[in-house]
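pipeline/complex-builder :: batch 7 item 3
reading input block
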Amino acid sequence: MLGYIFKRILYMLPTLILTSILVFALIELPPGDYLETYVNELLAAGETVDPQQIEFLRQEYAFDRPVWERYINWASGMLVGDFGYSFEFQLPVRDVIGDRLFFTIIVTFATIIFTWAIAFPIGIYSATHQYSWGDYGLTFFGLLGLAIPNFLLALVMMYLAQKWFNTSIGGLMDPEFIDKPFSWAKFVSVLEHLWIPVIVIGTSGTAGMIRRVRANLLDELRRPYVTTARAKGMTEFKGLMKYPFRMSLNFFIADIGGILPQVISGAELVAIVLSLETTGPLLIAALQSQDMYLAGSFLMMLGFLTVIGVLVSDILLAVLDPRIRLQGGISR
Amino acid sequence: MERDEGVLLKVDDLRVSFDVQGGSVEAVKGISFEVKNGSVLALVGESGSGKSVISQAILRILPDNGRIDSGKILFCDPNGNGDVIDLAAMSNRDPYLYKLRGGRISMVFQEPMTALSPLHTIGNQVEEALTLHHKKTKAEAKTDTEEVLKLVGFPDPARAYEMYSFELSGGLRQRAVIAMALICNPAMVIADEPTTALDVTVQAQILGLMKELQKKFNMAILLITHDLGVVANMADEVVVIYHGEVMEAGTVDDIFNNPQHPYLKALMAAIPHFDMAPGERLVSLREMGAEDGVKALGSQFAVSREVKNMEGPHLQVTNLRKEFTIRRGSWFGSSLANTIVAVDNVSLEVKQGECLGLVGESGSGKTTVAKLVIRALEATSGEVKFNSANGMQNVLELNKQELLEFRKTVQMIFQDPFSSLNPRMTVQNILREPFQIHRQGIGDEQRDQVVELMKLVGLDPRFLNRYPHSFSGGQRQRIGIARALALHPEMLICDEPVSALDVSVQAQILNLLNDLRKELGLSSLFISHNLAVVNYVADRIAVMCRGKIVEIASCEELFENPTHPYTKSLLASVPYPDLDRLLDFEEIMKSRTFDITAWGGAFSVSEGGTLGHIKVGDDHFVLANENCDRTELSA
């Protein structure tokens, strides 16, 4: 097992190197660089630009060096945790992302737990009561959730909250706590605000999840080993959880690989509408203003988390499914 | 109801129906029978007769859309207080039912692979049956489980306890399922086609085991099967079911020696057996009227054939070998390459117009041989020569164009009529495809040919626009045969063409294949695990085991004078539907060898020498040590 994990981590390296080259190339592709955008902005605002200062900046940030040299600087910096410098914010990338990453993780994990907590019981109910009124009703609401765009739901909820409770539900905490050090009161305030984005972001995911739990479980429910369990004298629920449900979990574990990258990029639109202090809007802004180190760090993190996510789900699958653990033979 | 002495289970006028789209279908129409304490009752019927539904109704594990309409299922527990309980009248969630299932009545299933969960160990699943019904500590449960695993014949119960179902052979899996059924010492075991998915030698062992345990624990067995051979060997009493109704019931003697009902008589006549006179025909339950079609088309074929006038064998396979490399990604970094020899030095000949039967159990490599011959797989070494219009061709060296031509002359009929036809193509398209691939004829001509083919296999050409799912298994297999005949092949390779079919349909297909072969002058390679079927269609038989041909002889010679120990054990394992020729369970259980390929003496090379095919009679060869004493072989 340890050897397997070690091998898998080794396989990750070339993938990550390739990703970093691609990311860097993508950032370099558009004509111009951040300084040009900056100069243009200043000129457009009618201010004068000191060419010497620009030249100084150009050297300072190595914009005059060849591409490969800049790539190596950037990539080797990341290895020691230096993600570069955000021109837009005039701060190291690490400091720009820091807090936001923390809030993003909170929102994302709360959403995931919300999704699972709702989707599993409903999915199981729908599968075991296939074609009943309950199944049809839940399916209808699920499809509704799937069909309504998240940002629209966010707008509607904002409007309703404003109209009925006369409060603003935007943000992740009351305005007075923003940029304040962490405290119990701040934490409570975050919890109070959290449920709106969680519901808004989680609805469509929950609906999709219900459909998948139902479909996978339905496949398993007709398998002979279910009959075996019943013929042994197992009660329906116990048998359901031990055999078909356990069997249907494979798809869900394989899904974990896709969840991690969402931590960074998930739900940008909702975050903008609800003005959440998460990383999504920041990523979009960075891409717009060609803030290359910030954007590059984001994209790298996405790549890294994807690779880690796949690794985690592969390891979990092997742990949970003896067929994968013991039968990994390939014939050729 | 008062208690009947000695009656364990009494099913009285049971009716079960299923809700389907647009109404309900009655699957069991008023069936009654009795199972006596410690006896074996066999429910016999073809697929769709409702026999499995009865077993599900008894345990009240019918699917959600099934329900018991009326009738009684009276159970009297011999260990109980003598109360007679009507299982049919209970509510679905009656606590007694959970105690009954697995505790007093347990079940053995057809497919041991799918009946066991692949995610849980054998020990876990067997033990669960025990702990659901008895309070046991973990250690006690484990001891009991290992004991019952030993009882059903696991050589190393402690190891088996930790293993998963996919790590076991089919026979051992079924033993695990039997262990699961026995662990609570039930009054009755319902065995639903317990050996249908197993090889014939394994089947004999499992049947022997069930019989032995049944006597030992004085259990009753409700045996559900379609195989009259199994019934003759196992049952005390027999109930024959057709379309949810009892056709005939009685003791095993009555049923086999004095069958009354026309259905039962017809069923008996439809089974190929070893005493058939040469040329004797199976009587199919439902004739399909294809004979005229075969004769009509036969004359067309014959003309094209005579021109060729070939000499020598039609197909000659020499020293054929196929290796598969299995790479196992091990958990500790390094990967182990494992070479498996699927086909080992196989040589055989199919003469002009001859049918060679290839018999072997699963994994013996018989299908691989077929695939190598038509070059669906590439052989590792060896030669395949095919006698065609331009003399003997080496099939393994044909180029792409020549291969395309070659494939017209050799066609295959597949085992599974369900998955070998594309469900999204109409029959018309399925049958036209060969013409399109080989660019023969244009639209109308192709359509006429397709109509001819349908007539040839006895199907109404009006069905051409239907999809495969609207046909029964036998009809689908006929479509498969029509497709194989489309290009007027010279040779047919039939890979288990009837093993997925019911007995009555099987007779139909076998007769059709026989007629086609005779009228069209086709040579064929007929692959099957069923010796009786092969005996019916083949002229000579080659017996395969572990990739090798161990014996090859004409049918009569092989059955009268089997020489190789494997052939002998194969013949000794076939259950005949004949009370005068029962299986010798004592002999079968005595050997209890799990490795049936551990032959000694003249048939092994443990004392040096090489294996070779030694002639022991006219056209009769057996695989043995070339240095052996020849007289040992004739003994």
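note: Strands of chain A lie at 85-86, 91-92, 329-331.
queue -> next item
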